[in-house]
Write a structure and sequence with these properties.
The chain has a four-stranded antiparallel sheet with strand order 1-2-3-4. The N and C termini lie far apart (about 190 Å). A hairpin with a 5-residue loop joins strand 2 and strand 3. By secondary structure, the chain is α+β, with helices and mostly antiparallel strands. Helix content is about 40%, strand content about 20%. The model is unreliable at about 5-10 and about 25-30 (pLDDT under 50). The protein has eleven helices and four strands; from the N terminus they run αααααααααββββαα.
């Protein structure tokens, strides 16, 4: 009897303890629910960024490549390029080119002989004026074409003032050997000509005054490759007084003078890409007439050959043995 009562009491205690544990588990589950999944990240706000880290790699299909290598028909290649969204390659290579200036002077102006010396009142001067009037037609047609592209273009005084300013700045930049800024005032053709043979030399140039006001004597407009690609060239006559002196690397004067000023008559060609919005007037070259006398050549300095001069001096000395006077025996 006692043993059966004890068994019932023990069973009741176990059942009560089990009920307490179940109640505690239900209470904890209601307060804070915890879900644990192995395939979900613990920070879901960065889900999009994590997905972007994964790159889908397309594995090569060797069978199709083998078929393509065996069959090079245009239809097969066209189908393959369309599937992959690839534009077909061209058999030639095209590169963009930009023509910044012309390579020469268009219909160069022929200066009249004796210009700057013959008075316009004389017979020769009157003949020169008549010849210039005959050539004015093409010049004014070119100026009219320039004004079609530049409505605000005026020869006097805007262009002439600008041309003289470019002329002075270009020569000053050349004397200072500022190669980087020189291209702002001269074209690529004139750049090579102005910097030719000035290395290891010192230049001194100064502009004193204008003997005659500069004027436009020639104008031409030409097209390159297409009819819309227009270049304009204006020839300006400068009659000025200048000084120029050139020194070699040892500081010796080889040409010109710092003191003596000379009258200089020049025909400078200015060029502009008139269809270009950012085109500039720049010096393109100078016209040297055939009747102009040649310039004086510059004296060239060389290193002396000391050994050859020493040998020459020794050979010129008289021989002592030959110079002795031998007296006959008495």
């Amino acid at each position: 009897m006692f043993r059966s009562v004890h068994t019932v009491y023990t069973g009741l205690n176990k059942l009560q303890h089990l009920n307490c544990n179940v109640q505690n588990m239900l209470t904890i589950g209601c307060v804070g629910q915890i879900r644990c999944r192995s395939n979900k990240h613990y920070k879901p706000e960065f889900k999009k960024l994590r997905s972007q880290k994964v790159l889908k790699v397309e594995l090569p299909d060797y069978e199709n490549e083998k078929l393509d290598s065996e069959d090079y028909s245009p239809e097969r290649l066209r189908t393959r390029y369309k599937e992959k969204g690839i534009q077909p390659t061209r058999p030639w290579i095209e590169r963009t080119t930009f023509i910044n200036n012309t390579g020469s002077i268009i219909e160069p102006y022929v200066p009249p002989e004796g210009d700057g010396k013959i008075s316009p009142i004389s017979t020769a001067g009157a003949k020169q004026k008549i010849e210039l009037l005959k050539k004015k037609k093409e010049t004014w047609q070119a100026i009219r074409k320039i004004r079609q592209n530049e409505e605000e273009f005026e020869l006097y005084p805007e262009f002439i003032t600008k041309a003289q300013d470019i002329y002075l700045k270009a020569h000053t930049t050349m004397v200072n050997k500022d190669k980087q800024n020189l291209l702002q005032y001269v074209t690529e053709k004139a750049y090579v000509e102005m910097l030719h043979n000035i290395d290891n030399k010192t230049l001194r140039w100064s502009f004193i005054k204008s003997i005659e006001p500069p004027r436009v004597v020639h104008a031409r407009v030409t097209d390159i490759i297409t009819q819309d690609n227009l270049f304009a060239q204006l020839t300006v006559r400068f009659h000025t007084k200048q000084t120029l002196s050139v020194f070699d690397r040892f500081g010796r004067l080889i040409f010109g003078s710092d003191v003596v000023a000379k009258d200089v008559l020049e025909y400078v060609v200015f060029e502009k890409h008139i269809v270009n919005q950012y085109g500039m007037w720049r010096i393109h070259g100078k016209i040297i007439p055939d009747w102009m006398p040649p310039k004086e050549p510059a004296t060239v300095t060389n290193i002396l050959n000391i050994e050859a001069e020493t040998e020459t001096a020794l050979e010129a000395q008289p021989d002592e043995a030959k110079s002795k006077i031998v007296l006959p025996d008495a």
